């Protein structure tokens, strides 16, 4: 990964580190929602929801388009797949480590203490 990729990964994980933002991502992946309709689901101000949506947009997890007076948000499946790919890469590293530990235990199952 180069620095640009690392910055993008930081933005994705930062955006997904918040419960409200994860919920917004779930909703916009299921279908396009206006920011106003999204705001009705949360016990916070419209401006606060707009800020969450902006963080998700900067991370590339959703896109917005204007329709009349409304801003409609849609989830970006490719960005979610990128996050899944990064997590799968980390899982592979850990599975490799566990495999090497299993190999060491198999060679010497009863090490002297």
TrEMBL record:
Residues 1-95 form the HTH arsR-type domain. Coiled coil: none annotated. This is Transcriptional regulator. One of its GO terms (molecular function) is DNA-binding transcription factor activity. InterPro entries: ArsR-like_HTH (IPR011991), HTH_ArsR_DNA-bd_dom (IPR001845), WH-like_DNA-bd_sf (IPR036388), WH_DNA-bd_sf (IPR036390). PANTHER family: SLL0088 PROTEIN, TRANSCRIPTIONAL REGULATORY PROTEIN. Signal peptide: none annotated.
